[in-house]
Amino acid sequence: MAGYKPVAIQAYPVLGEKITQDTLYWNNYKTPVQIKEFGAVSKVDFSLQPPYNYAVTASSRIHIYGRYSQEPIKTFSRFKDTAYCATFRQDGKLLVAGSEDGGIQLFDISGRAPLRQFEGHTKAVHTVDFTADKYHVVSGADDYTVKLWDIPNSKEILTFKEHSDYVRCGCASKLNPDLFVTGGRYIKVWDMLKGGQLLVSLKNHHKTVTCLCLSSSGQRLLSGSLDRKVKVYSTSSYKVVHSFDYAASILSLALAHEDETIVVGMTNGILSVKHRKSEAKKDSLPRRRRPAYRTFIKGKNYMKQQDDILINRPSKKHLELYDRDLKNFRISKALDRVLETPEITVSIIKELNRRGVLANALAGRDEKEISRVLNFLIRNLSQPRFAPVLINAAEIIIDIYLPVIGQSPVVDKKFLLLQGLVEKEIDYQRELLETLGMMDMLFATMTSKESPSLLQHNASDGFLENKKIES
Amino acid sequence: MVEEESLRVVRCGGSELNFRRAVFSADSKYVFCVSGDFIKVYSTATEECVHILQGHRNLVTGIQLNPKNHLQLYSCSFDGMIKLWDYTDGILIKTFIVGCKLHALFTLDCAEDSVFVTINKEKPDVFQLVSVKLPKSSSQEVEAKELSFVLDYINQSPKCIAFGNEGEYVAAVRDFYLSVYFFKKKTTSRFTLSSSRNKKHAKNNFTCVACHPKEDCIATGHRDGKIRLWRNFDDEKKYTYTCLHWHHDLVMDLAFSVTGSSLLSGGRESVLVEWREAAEKNKEFLPRLGATIEHISVSPAGDLFCTSHSDNKMIIIHRNLEASAVIQGLVKDRNIFTGLMIDPRTKALVLNGKPGHLQFYSLQSDKQLYNLDIIQQEYINDYGLIQIELTKAAFGCYGNWLATVEQRQEKETELELQMKLWTYNKKTQGFVLNTKVNMPHEDHITALCFCNAEKSENPTLVTTSKDGHFKVWILTDDSDIYKKAVGWTCDFVGSYHKYQATNCCFSEDGSLLAVSFEEVVTIWDSETWELKCTFCQRAGKIRQLCFGRLTCSKYLLGATENGILCCWNLLSCALEWSAKLNVRVMEPDPNSENIAAISQSSMGSDLFVFRPSEPRPLYIQKNISREEVQWGVFVPRDVPESFTSEAYQWLNRSQFYFLTKSQSLLTFSTQSPEEKLTPTSKQLLHTPAHVLPSASFLCSMFVNSLLLSKETKSAEEIPDDVSMEEEKESVDSDEENNFTEEVQDTNNTDLGKDIIHQLSKSEEKELRKFRKVDYSWITAL
């Protein structure tokens, strides 16, 4: 026959943000570490090799931070003017940076002085990057040119002069077919394999998008903008799945290996570093000894003979503890078990009421037990979604424990608290009703006078009403 | 052509299975139960009905195996006859006429040629146990008038009488007494429970009794849930009893196992309790059997138990307390709130079943197909509890959606209301919960209807409520990148002057929605949800509302509480006609323009079939039932009938079923359902499977026989012996198939005419059979 049917726990609609895998993933960071830089942080770049240091370009300095250090490990400050675009090579050993005066400097991470200096650009170099073969550097500058430099000789190899405006952004191919380009408030995605076809154009920020970054899995795209938001998109649907808020306009954004750290540079020179929370630690208690492996495979490899009848053991349905209690009619125990989460408690109280045993479950409690129930009531009685059920339970408790009132100061205090709560709630309701009545009256006068001559009057009425709501 | 015969009301299925204890055959292969005027033989292995033994002309009240021949069965009935049956072939062997109403039947191994029956002599409430000597005679009908008195002042129910220790004594209980009659000593001892005299409202009345098969021990069940085991009762002074107490409500039935080592008890808790060695400690339970256990019986072989339940169900339980088979009839012990519906997929009748369930009942096979658990909560069977009731249900979009409403009202102000929407899952072949709406309205929901128009792209549901609103619910897509989901949301809320909304109905094409607000009918455009027009006749609240169909789709019909049936024309927005008719049930036929209305008067219920286009009814049948008719429904026929008479043409494409207040399901018919089977298929169905060749061998020939044959000669080519066999078989089957019960003959033709009519009918049927059917495939066997 049919088995025990577990109690259906009433689900209440969750207000606010929907909880999805993405919100869980992106919220799983510690509170940010704030580091003050000297100027606006224009670029943050992570090294791809352990220990995953990152270079922060701010004003005329480049700071290298370790993953967990709040002080820079190293500082390159040999710039005469503002430095731009400090970028690590793929192996994490070299760092290249452009600068306002048109120079490009190549540093060794371990050294202090620049290894190479590429002179050639006449105006500020805003973008520098290593090519995929590691031995060349590409740079774009405000003199409308893009140049390719050879590292060993520190010579200019090629110059592209097809640009007709400042080259501010560039990206060496890393075998990624899609290219993300920001422009104004739009993020545009182009498919390079199809000869530069526009895949999608995203407009989720209401100010200029300044930086883009792919998550380590490649499934999510992050964009930072001057509107102080970082948004996370799914790269399959290009829908926003999550967003972060920051204190100032965002200029740069970088994600560490495996999304372990999010580093955001802002216009006010603050670098915000968020580390992922470490996985919840396993219980330190020694694990109970499980049955040996062979117990689980016992009889599994037995081949069925011809005349054998296979009898399956009925699968055991997992029941919650309160369900197990209810199944065995241990009603008080079931109620005691669930006094923490109000949704479950209310469902259990409802179920007990349906079974006609709520009074039995509430009766016969000592001081400690009844004060637990009263505490729960005091916490949740005024919530409108639980009120109908809990008021009923409170009435039953009062009926049961009225004769013994005055015997325990603890319980008496709880009852007084409950009384105060109810009185306060009644006052609220009365006030709300009064306001509602006033509003009704105002609306009634408004609808009756529909002639345009009284428009002025109506407007003043509306104003009055607004004031009332505020008050 | 179907023979034109007078239309009559016939009872259709839904027979009761739990009236008396079931009886097992000696080898436990079959289980017998009384069912109205019939005895049904079920196979314990397959749950199928093997035979229906019919012959009694009134309620069958008791059955017992013949102790001398285990292949025979005795039965007694209110018509004063004891009949002896051969249940393996389903043949009546002998009839003994006793002549007075028989209430129960008992047999004993030692009592050679007599059986015991309960009769009432003078007063209506005084019953006697008498033994009837069954005379030996070769004739089919024998008078058995030789009654000898055994016990007086006993209870009518057979549960209150038990024979013990191989027929040495008989125990009977009534009120607060236990009487034991010893056959050898011919004395009666009477035991009273001492406490019963002192207390005014003592609850230890006896409810049932069972005797140990081997020892001198009597078990009695009581109203307060106690079971008492009596010993040493041959001495009126030294008798002792011990108490077993687990049940918290009255003990409905008790039974000892064959060896007497364990005692079975059951009651309202729907738990079968097995007491081992009559000890309080050794008990085993089989819980959650679904409904109150009414009877318990044990097979003579001792391997099976059978419990009969109040929800018209028998459960065959194995010795180790494992349910092995469930024989479920139409559940009828509760109020029907949902009305009768037809599942568009299975064509099954759908209505309230056991608590919190919707039952799907096959009208063709008189069998419950399945139960859909709507409320999905542990059912607590306790007296005085307010249960959640399933109040409304509706199918939509060709059976793809099912909407249900459940409610529970404890106090005036505390109403729990829930609406659930179920979608049909093709993979699992069942309904799956899609959306649950808590408190869809502030007050009771009065009606629920889907928009079933063919062109409607989006499923739409309308609910009306006593809170004065009607709500439109539509299916919306709220899938995102994480999951695909569709759910129902409220699209529009309408009201009309704060009147209670009582009924709603969509027009056939789905373009208009009619909602009745007490006395006013409002018409809404289903595209924009604008109020189009209103109709008001000032003739009481609207009770029923429906649109005309097909050619009559411009009409809207409404029946009011003051007994006025109104028909409005939607094109002219005016009243077309009205009639004075106190309509209880109004059902449109889905396949035609016809509308059936059942009116209620002091005399009984009358049926009117009419088309909205004209006020003159097509067909009137007076007095279809003496009781109030609660619900009705048209069931589309699989194969259309071809009544030529104009009066019966409304039954050509659909059949009309209705349910009376006492929960009997009735229909109109001119013939029994089994006659409708074509002779070929009937023959196939009635021939035992082991006699037939393999199905692959038969198939092509069988299919060919169903096709229109090119040469009509084939019928004559049948060898003689085959056709003889055929004839015999079909005659047999004609005899045994009349299981529809005639409730009343409404036509006033005199009897003589009727007989002649029938004769010619059967003859013609035979002729027809030979003319039509192509038997050539049989010759190949």
Structure keywords:
heterodimer; A: 471 residues; Methylamine Dehydrogenase, Chain H; 4-stranded antiparallel β-sheet; B: 781 residues; mainly beta; 5-stranded antiparallel β-sheet; 9% helix; WD repeat (chain A); rRNA processing (chain A); WD40_repeat_CS (chain A); U3 small nucleolar RNA-associated protein 15 homolog (chain A)
How would you briefly describe this protein structure?
Chain B: Residues 340-663 form the WD repeat-containing protein 75 second beta-propeller domain. The complex is a heterodimer of chains A (471) and B (781). With 471 residues, chain A is of the alpha+beta class.
Poorly predicted spans of chain A: 451-471
State the end-to-end CA separation of chain A.
62 Å
* Arrangement of strands in the largest sheet of chain A: 1-23-22-21
The strand order across the widest sheet of chain B is 55-56-57-1-58
Low-confidence spans of chain B: 672-679, 711-756
Coarse shape of chain A: elongated
Principal-axis shape of chain B: globular
Number of helices of chain A: 10
Please name the fourth-level CATH homologous superfamily of the largest domain in chain A. Answer: YVTN repeat-like/Quinoprotein amine dehydrogenase
The total count of helices of chain B amounts to 6
Percent in strands of chain A: 25-35%
Into how many domains do the coordinates of chain A divide? 2
Q: What's the CATH topology label of the largest domain in chain A? A: Methylamine Dehydrogenase, Chain H
Structural class of chain A: alpha+beta
Which CATH top level class of the largest domain in chain A fits? Mainly Beta
Structural class of the helix and strand makeup of chain B? mainly beta
Helical fraction of chain B:
under 10%
Determine Rg of chain A (CA atoms, Å). Answer: 34 Å
* Mean pLDDT score of chain A: 81
The protein's oligomeric status is: heterodimer
The residue fraction in helices of chain A comes out at: 25-40%
GO biological process, one term (chain A): rRNA processing
WD repeats (chain A): 118-159, 202-243
Protein name (chain A): U3 small nucleolar RNA-associated protein 15 homolog
Domain U3 small nucleolar RNA-associated protein 15 C-terminal (chain A): 301-442
